[in-house]
Automatic annotation (TrEMBL):
It comes from Mycena albidolilacea. It comes from the Eukaryota. One of its GO terms (cellular component) is mitochondrion. It holds the Pfam family ECH_1. This is Delta2-dienoyl-CoA-isomerase.
Amino acid sequence: MALTADLSSKWLLVSEPAPHVLHIELARTPVNAFSSEFWHAYGALFDRITAEGRDVRAAVLSSAIPKLFTAGIDLADAAKITTGGLSGATQIDGARTSLAMLRDIKDFQHAIGAPERAQFPVIVAVHGLVLGLGIDIIAACDVRYAAESSQFSIKEVDIGLAADVGTLAYLPKITGNHSLMREMAYSAALFSASDASRMGLLSRVVPGGREEVVAAALALAGVIAGKSPIAVSGTKRILLHSRDHSVAENLEYTAAWNAAALQTQDIPESLAAAKGRRAPKFAPLHRSKL
């Protein structure tokens, strides 16, 4: 069965441009606005890939819309959240309304955070506008590339709320220029790819537009996919642990992780391939359930 079998859906296009590499494209016209259905499908896609044991070793996330990455949340759904939750049920009192909102927000966070749960690196390649929820989405990815003409906005304060899906949790961890980050979060101002790079949000600004930035991201994904999946998935997990723990705690975690991971056959295969001047051949992380 093909790696991408049955993965594409109404607003998510999934292809395999290189062995073990997925290209996931957001495709809800006209502006990739995220409704409840869209974000649930988005999160479920990443979780399903791992649950089914598909041999994915890197993924690129981009937009199929020619002029932008995403305009953010669908405003109709945003209005539903502020009036008592997406379920549409009339709540008896404020406490019950609050519990409904809490459930909706946590469901939203879980869905948009799905790339972080993936056992493979996710490289996001953006172009055009990246507004509001778009920042939440890219913050949960491992590597962020942007076309040089991209424009970003932490837009939530313009509609009367603090960003609650990931932006304000991730950005203090992944950016180095906190003054610039706070300026943009407080003002909702548009900022350029150059500003995003200066902030530390991006690792690369790519000359050109959508095609060029996607090509650059796919090239990186191809390199990663050729590495040991045990080594890459372990590196991702250890880096995530390091972000949220002390050095001493992370060293302890790494020692425990590698006490098991160093028993992999990927190490002798890597050495044999290097000696034989050939590409290594690695087994999947999991047996497929398909």
